[in-house]
Amino acid sequence: MQEFIKIKGAREHNLKNINLEIPRNKMVVFTGVSGSGKSSLAFDTIFAEGQRRYIESLSSYARQFLGKLDKPDVDEIEGLSPAISIDQKSHSANPRSTVATITEIYDYLRVLFARAGVPHCPVCGKKIQRLTLDEIVDIAKSIANKNAKGKGLMILAPVVRGRKGEYYQMLYDFLGAGFYEVRVDGVIKSLREKIELKRHHTHTIDLVVDKLPYGTNLEDKDNRTRLSEAIETAMKYGGDVVTLITDEELNLSAKFTCPDDSFSFPEIEPRLFSFNSPYGACESCHGIGTKEPWTEEICEACLGKRLRPEALSVLLDGKNIVTITSMSITEAREFFGSMKALKETRFREITEAPLREIKSRLKFMEDVGLDYLTLGRKAGTLSGGEAQRIRLASQIGSRLTGTLYILDEPTIGLHQKDNEKLIKTLIELRDIGNSILVVEHDEETIHAADYLVDIGPGAGVHGGEVVALGKIPEIFKDKTQKSLTLDYLRKEKEIEVPASRRKVAEKSKGDFLKIRGATENNLQNIDVDIPLRRFTAITGVSGSGKSTLVYDVLYKTLANKLNPDVRRGGVDATTEASGRYKPGAVKAILGLEYVNRVISIDQSPIGRTPRSNPATYVGAWVYIRELFTATEDARVRGYKIGRFSFNVKGGRCENCEGHGVIAIEMHFLPTVYVTCDICKGKRFNKETLEVKYKKKNVYEVLKMTIEEAAEFFRDIPWVHDKLGILNEVGLGYLELGQSAPTLSGGEAQRIKLSAELGKRDTRKTVYLLDEPTTGLHFDDVKKLLDVIHRLVDRGNTVVVIEHNLDVIKTADWVIDLGPEGGEKGGKIVAVGTPEEVSKRTGSYTGAYLRKVLKKTI
Fold it and tell me: Where in the cell is it found (predicted)?
């Protein structure tokens, strides 16, 4: 086994022919400024090649369903293990996907309930026992005697239940065994006739075992023996289940049937507890839990529980599967740790394996600060960091060895309190025989790693090189190796604590937004005062209520009041029928008269199509088009400004409609994007590309980096200024026309900030930011803070949800929520300047702030 992963000639994206050796079975951290090429090396080169090799190792039959992956631009990679990527890309918004399903806990729960659950009658609620053959015969005699319509008694064996297939051989075998009739999809058919079934349709087939005429004396010994033998035969073919038909149809099971009302359970199998299966899902909402997908109107039949009554009537220690998935991670761990039923000897062997897997995954999620999440929490409501750690829980649970794990900033959304637990988990994953590659900026994670690879020195064309590498802590002592990252790690450069802060006055009129009685989600009826024209950091452990307070309560209320004419598109769980926001529960928010508008600057894309790009978003593109329209060539040809737009007909390439690529739907495979063969990806037609400004056509301008374009348009203030702001926030490496879908969440957020800085000074605006340091290097955080303070200096209010101590220590005001997550959170733990919060006992944030402020306190 090789000791190193050897990379030769990596040139993907901005990488400059990198040659590198990475130690195997170690934890290796990739650092560098934003856009330097870390992700290009870790994900687009190493992981992409690992994934490609895995797919090529499969059979040709399997490969046809997976498609072919292009080889990354690298000469050679040696010593590569099977690779698993756990990144920050958007997670499933499928309403069926939950924390329990993502981590596979729900799969193990279904097995546990199927094998150890105790069924109870959904009608009377009594515990259901197994029926013996004699008991089933007695029930058959009873219903035959009560027959009021003069029908006989028919005994059937259910042999196929809702499965696809032709079943030709099975039907032929029944005829050979001496049977004459079957019931196919509700219709009685003779086995002597040809029965043709559609292969891809689901069918239900019952074997007709015997028919007893009306009036048969079942007290007669011979008739009773005939009935008993028929039922026994039916159970043999029907898997211990028999169907009796007189006036009505009755399914009886040698497994579970209610003795009082004859309610018979279906087979208790794992699929009965699946809301993704027609055998387990509520028949009214089909397992969604709401009347319609993407709404909050609860299904009346199942009351949002998603499962059919039979599934909800199987209990473990008196709890059904929905009750357990409504528990938090911590509550679930306590429940399974003290469960009495599974300690019984008869259950111990069959439940040991699934129970071990469930406990392992619950422990990991608790270890990485996700103890406040409920198992039934929908995937679409999770943050990127939460989703990444949950996927990591699933991988940890699998206990694979010899694997290469590649993670993208796993500390995102994680309070310093929980960092240590996450790092410990990663080290455990390494110690069982795996290689861990982590793209990360978090200082604690870097110090805990075995090896550091620093990519730089700058971003975009200025990056793509290995500027420093080595074992930790040796690299910190090696003064021959220098880089911007090492400057910050060695404390030769720092984000400094402000010499003075903007003072927050007493709670006088006009100085605060006053939130009164907030009770949304886990908020404990709290009152919060946010100072206006100041920089406020909302802090606290994961799940403490930060996002609920800032977005569900503050933003949605302000947006409805300050922007009443704005509609939110289609009605979903976040909107009212009118399309306006549905604000979180709060008694009142005072001080709105002192605010003109509210802007939420989150990490959602700046656009959904390749046509959206940084130039269009910040408003520079319209001026650039005007410059092209004013050229002599354009005037001679009579071209108007629309000629240089890829959104309307005229100047764009109509084959790709200005996208530069053509999307090819592959039906059951992912959509494939192919470069347009007419314009070759240039987005415009030949005539438009013939018009040039300063010897460059419109496509060549779009291909410039923002840094290059700012210099190119130096003499055009209304273009240069907007691009200059993008450059200032560290986005100079992006192409002017880079399509929105290729931008990271952090890049999208900084573009939105730049657009706000480029607008006319409005003052009295409230800006709300959610973890804006995501994906940012120490030096980029410094640039971001400069932008934030500029917004505040112009008379605006900035409220930031953040864990990064460098951001928190520079804020004017800190509001710390907690003390824990989930039900144990939602309270105000500390309020004040960073110095004041650092002195508060009981505040986790304060304890960590104390360390970074110790020089100034």
Answer: Cytoplasm
Q: Are 555 and 549 in contact (CB under 8 A)?
A: no
Whether residue 82 is preceded by a cis peptide bond, meaning omega within 30 degrees of 0, is no
How far, CA to CA in Å, does 586 sit from each of 511, 515, 531, 556, 595?
A: 20, 8, 19, 11, 19
Q: Map tokens 């992409």 to a residue.
A: 48
Number of domains observed in the structure of the chain = 5
Q: How far apart are CA 92 and CA 102, in angstroms?
A: 9
- Omega within 30 of 0 (cis) for the link into 293: no
Cβ–Cβ under 8 Å, residues 693 and 628? yes
H-state helical runs in 67-203: 99-102, 105-116, 133-145, 168-176
CB 736 within 8 A of CB 762: no
The pair of structure tokens assigned to 197 is 């079934």
Task: Name the strand (E) or helix (H) holding 338.
Answer: helix 329-338
- Specify if 504 maps to a domain: no
Q: Where are the alpha helices (DSSP H) in 762-833?
A: 778-793, 805-808
Pairing of strands 83-86, 187-190: unpaired
Can you tell me the distance from the alpha carbon of 727 to that of 722, in angstroms, rounded to the nearest whole number? 9
| pLDDT, position 505 | 80
Give the torsion through C-alpha atoms of 495, 497, 500, 506, to 10 deg.
120
- Domain hosting residue 85, numbered range: 4-91+383-490
User: Alpha helices of 630-669 — where are they, by DSSP H?
Assistant: 632-637
Q: Are residues 42 and 138 in the same domain?
A: no
Please choose, from the candidates 390, 373, 758, 333, the residue with its C-alpha nearest in 3D space to the C-alpha of residue 542.
Answer: 373
Contacts of 657 (CB under 8 A, 6+ apart): 646
- Assess if residue 126 is contained within a domain: no
Alpha carbon distance 469, 4 (integer Å): 14
Show which of 706, 740, 774 is a domain's final residue. 740
For residue 269, CA distances in Å to 116, 272, 404 come to 11, 6, 36
Tell me what pLDDT residue 148 has. 58
Q: Which of 104, 102, 105 is nearest to 92 (CA)?
A: 102
Angle at CA 713, nearest 5°, toward 709 and 719?
Answer: 90
pLDDT beneath 50: ranges in the chain:
90, 567-571, 668-670, 857
Q: Is 568 within 8 Å of 580 (Cβ atoms)?
A: yes
Q: Which long-range contacts (CB under 8 A, 24 or more apart) does 502-509 make?
A: 502/533, 502/534, 502/535, 502/792, 502/812, 504/531, 504/534, 504/812, 504/813, 504/833, 505/531
Tell me the residue type at 831. Answer: V
Q: What's the rounded Cα separation, in Å, for the pair 397 and 105?
A: 10
* CA-wise closest residue to 778 among 487, 459, 447, 478: 487
Question: Which tokens is 796 given?
Answer: 């605006």
In 201-284, alpha helices (H): 221-237
The pLDDT, as a whole number, for residue 460 is 83
- d(CA 659, CA 652) in angstroms, rounded, equals 9
The pLDDT of residue 510 is 62
Q: Find out whether 546 and 415 touch, Cβ atoms under 8 Å.
A: no
Assign residue 276 the CATH number of its domain. 1.20.1580.10
Apex CA 739: angle with CA 733 and CA 742, to 5°? 75
Other Cβ atoms within 10 Å of 852 Cβ, number = 17
> pTM higher than 0.85 for the full model?
no
Give the three-state DSSP class for 67: coil
Tens-place pLDDT, residues 639-668: 999 999 988 899 999 998 988 888 766 554
Please provide residue 167's backbone torsions phi and psi, each rounded to the nearest 5 degrees. Answer: 55, 25
Does residue 259 form part of some domain?
no
Q: Hey, what are 497's tokens?
A: 């604590």
- Distance from C-alpha of 192 to C-alpha of 213, rounded to nearest angstrom: 22
Residue 451: how many other CB atoms lie within 10 Å: 18
Residue 311 placed within a domain: yes
Strands across the sheet containing 827-832? 597-601, 765-770, 797-801, 535-540, 813-818, 827-832
- Asked if residue 113 and residue 26 are part of one domain, the reply reads no
Q: 154-164: per-residue pLDDT in tens?
A: 999 999 988 89
- Same-domain status, 68 and 46: yes
